[in-house]
Design a protein that fits this description.
By secondary structure, this protein is of the alpha/beta class. It folds into two domains: 177 residues, P-loop containing nucleotide triphosphate hydrolases (Rossmann fold, 3-Layer(aba) Sandwich); 89 residues. The chain contains eleven helices and seven strands. The strands form two sheets. It has a five-stranded parallel β-sheet with strand order 2-3-6-1-7, with helices on both faces. Strands 4-5 form a two-stranded antiparallel ribbon. The longest helix has 18 residues. It is globular and about 60 Å long. The structure holds zinc ion.
Length: 281
């Protein structure tokens, strides 16, 4: 499916902003929502629209479009805890002050291209993940404020995150924010799994199949998707009030994978057993 079919309201918005005199193209953009892969593709699409030397069509074959499609454009940089680290930077869990400085240094010289910096996170397998207070900490975010607030021409910053409140208000207030819907329905509520899953990280291994059975019983009244979203929302709530429980970040990912299995039509007994085995140690 073409991006412009999947997110017509967003691609239209940016295409219009680039061609219309009345609507300015935002120079700091924040995407949020559950579907980080789509956010990343959208970010690259913005970079492509800004750099394309031909007609900006989906299948344009100009050099800039080719570069962006193959992730090799010299002026489009992904900034994450794993991408584009200066050589003397040994931080592995955060976007660092040194990366912020690297960006500032780059902006000191002129460029023939429109520079786009895409801020996100990645897991060890290379999957795009969202910014949060752990991987994009206040010190680094604040060090970027000046260049975001008074951006020079030909520079665009794009931030990707799951929940808008995971990014500092100072960044949000300087950015134009766009919700990127996923095909999942998320109501940000975990009440349906309260009592079954509360404090699951304190459960014991012997509880696994009991908990899984209770989740399966729940699926008489709720869809797998609703149950898994509720679990994910619960983990996020815990993580927000206990940011030191970093092992739970992995759990959000595990539930995300369970959601994908659910979409593939895998039986709920298998999904919930597998999930509980992974989450309850
Ligand atoms: Zn092009």
């Amino acid at each position: 499916m073409q991006l412009s079919d999947k997110y017509p309201f967003l691609t239209n918005y940016f295409t219009l902003a680039l061609t219309s005199k009345n609507r300015a193209m935002p120079q700091s953009i924040l995407f949020y929502g559950n579907d980080l892969d789509s956010q990343y593709i959208l970010a690259k699409e913005v970079a492509r629209l800004l750099n394309c030397k031909k007609d900006k069509s989906d299948d344009c074959d100009c050099l800039d479009c080719k570069w962006i499609n193959s992730n090799s454009h010299p002026a489009v940089m992904t900034i994450s805890r794993l991408d584009n680290k200066p050589e003397d930077d040994d931080s592995k869990t955060v976007i660092s002050i040194k990366q912020s400085q690297l960006i500032k240094d780059k902006l000191m010289s002129s460029s023939d291209y429109h520079r786009v910096f895409i801020f996100c996170d990645r897991d060890e397998e290379g999957n795009v993940q969202g910014l949060n207070p752990l991987n994009f900490q206040a010190e680094t975010a604040n060090s970027l404020l000046k260049i975001i607030e008074e951006p020079q021409a030909g520079v665009t910053f794009i931030f990707l995150t799951r929940y808008i409140e995971d990014v500092l208000p100072t960044i949000i207030s300087r950015s134009q924010c766009f919700f990127v819907p996923s095909y999942e329905n998320n109501n940000y509520d975990y009440s349906i799994i309260e009592g079954i899953f509360t404090d699951y990280y304190n459960f014991e291994r012997k509880d696994v199949f009991d908990v899984s059975q209770r989740l399966q019983d729940l699926s008489k009244d709720f869809s797998q998707e609703q149950i898994l979203s509720a679990i994910q929302n619960y983990i996020y709530a815990i993580l927000k009030s206990n940011p030191q429980m970093t092992s739970l970040i992995k759990h959000i990912e595990i539930v995300e994978n369970a959601k994908r299995q659910s979409l593939l039509g895998i039986r709920s007994v298998n999904i919930f057993d597998d999930l509980c085995l992974k989450l309850i140690k």
